[in-house]
Amino acid sequence: MPERPYHIEVMISAKAIAARIEALSKEIRRAYKDTDKLVVVGLLRGSFVFIADLVRELEMNVEVDFLEASSYGNATESSREVKILKDLRGPIEGRDVLVVEDIVDTGHTLSAVLKLLKSRNPRKLETIALLDKPARREVDLKATWTGFEIPDAFVVGYGIDFAQANRNLPYIGSVVFEDEAKGSEA
Ligand code: 5GP
Questions:
Q1: CA–CA separation, 117 vs 97, rounded Å?
Q2: Which residue puts its alpha carbon closest to atom 5 of ligand 1?
Q3: Distance 144 CA to ligand 1 centre (A)
Q4: pLDDT digits (tens, 9 = 90+) for 106-124
Q5: Which residue among 53, 96, 102, 105 is the active-site one?
Q6: DSSP secondary structure string, 34-95?
Q7: Any stretches that span the bilayer, and where are they (predicted)?
Q8: Are 76 and 102 a contacting pair, CB within 8 Å?
């Protein structure tokens, strides 16, 4: 199938992301001030860059684990059924946990993941999402901490892909399809 041509427009610069992570890290450190060792649970794959920057800024004793839930595949529409494709390596019972998500969109993924993790009886369970698209929400849920609220656009970069490309962009960009861009000028 021929690729549909597109370009990417910068939405959130690398500098703005770094500044926001620094501010959020201070809040997180305060919230977990009694925690010996924080279990940071990254939701693969979109959160891997965010986690890398976040844990280094946190300056806390952390363990990092990963969980992969099914989402878009190679299409741009979210499927409603969430499957766990890769589970955590370690137990979280009685532990202080921070779940790191790239984007809260409809909310189905984070909601299903939280339900699963709560059933394992952590001592404390909070969430951080780099991006939040409140206009798309179908489940009543908000992450404890949010990096940026964004409009309903398809975004890439900073770990987030489009058909497995663009994860390595240092900024968050929105995908603009050339046919739609031309259409809006007419
Ligand atoms: P939700 O279950 O909240 O609808 O979807 C969350 C997941 O959908 C995110 O973790 C992310 O993988 C994917 N997602 C949501 N919005 C976007 C987007 O704009 N771009 C990309 N690449 N993935 C998205």
A1: 9
A2: 105
A3: 18
A4: 999 999 999 999 999 999 9
A5: 105
A6: T-SSEEEEEEETTTHHHHHHHHHHH-S-EEEEEEEE---TTSSS--S---EEE--SS--TT-
A7: none
A8: no
| Ligand 1 centroid to residue 46 C-alpha, Å | 8
Query: Has 105 been annotated as catalytic?
Result: yes
**Interaxial angle between packed helices 14-31 and 48-58, expressed in degrees from 0 to 180 and rounded to the nearest 10:** 60
Among the atoms of ligand 1, which is closest to the Cα of residue 46?
Answer: 12
- For 84-95, write each residue's pLDDT tens digit: 999 999 999 999
From 71, 136, 156, give the residue whose CB has the most ligand 1 atoms within 8 Å, as the site to mutate.
71
Type of residue at 128: I
Architecture of domain 19-152: 3-Layer(aba) Sandwich (3.40)
Q: Identify any residues that bridge with 128 across adjacent strands, giving them in sequence order.
A: 100, 145
pTM for the whole thing? Answer: 0.93
